[in-house]
Amino acid sequence: MKKLVSLICMFMAIGFTHAQENLTQNTIQGLLKGNQDQVIQLAEAFSEEQYDWRPMEGVNSVAEALLHVAGSNYFIGSKMGFAPPEEVDVMGLTKITGKSNIIAALKKSNAWVLDKVGEVESSELGSEVDFGFMKMNKLGGLLIIMEHNGEHKGQLIAYARSNGVVPPWSE
């Protein structure tokens, strides 16, 4: 019996240690997933016609904001060393039209970048990355991904409220 308890404790310790090793990535994944889910809920709450709405000339429409998030997920991930899926035309994302197509592209991008966050090794979090607009470490890159999704969630909440769309989680 003592051997069984010892064995169980050993496996629990290994599992806990593994979780702690990836604590940063797991935490960022959880927060990012929450933002992603809410952006998708907003995307689904807008009508097809509202996808062309923009608050003023020169500012992204609803559709453009959603596709910007999708493209940025691939861009930032690629700068961190992860090649986007071969079937994704990153430069052609802005040409996607139609609510269902835009949501599908965003969901694919979200799943991809969420997976890549988990692939960053803890030992690499301090490694320098040149993002083109600045140099920082990989941890900074993970935080940019999370913050960028949150920033555009806020933008889309404002767009929704301006169009009489209530964010689904606040109904």
From TrEMBL:
Keyword Lipid biosynthesis: no
Coiled-coil blocks: none
Alphabetically ordered keywords of this record: Metal-binding, Signal
Binding site residues for a divalent metal cation: H68, H148, H152
Gene3D superfamilies: dinb family like domain
Entry superkingdom: Bacteria
Molecular function, one GO term: metal ion binding
Pfam families according to UniProt: DinB
Alphabetical list of InterPro entries matching this protein: DinB (IPR007837), DinB/YfiT-like (IPR034660)
Signal peptide: 1-19
SUPFAM superfamilies: DinB/YfiT-like putative metalloenzymes
Family per record: Belongs to the DinB family.
Protein name: DinB family protein
Taxon lineage: Bacteria, Pseudomonadati, Bacteroidota, Flavobacteriia, Flavobacteriales
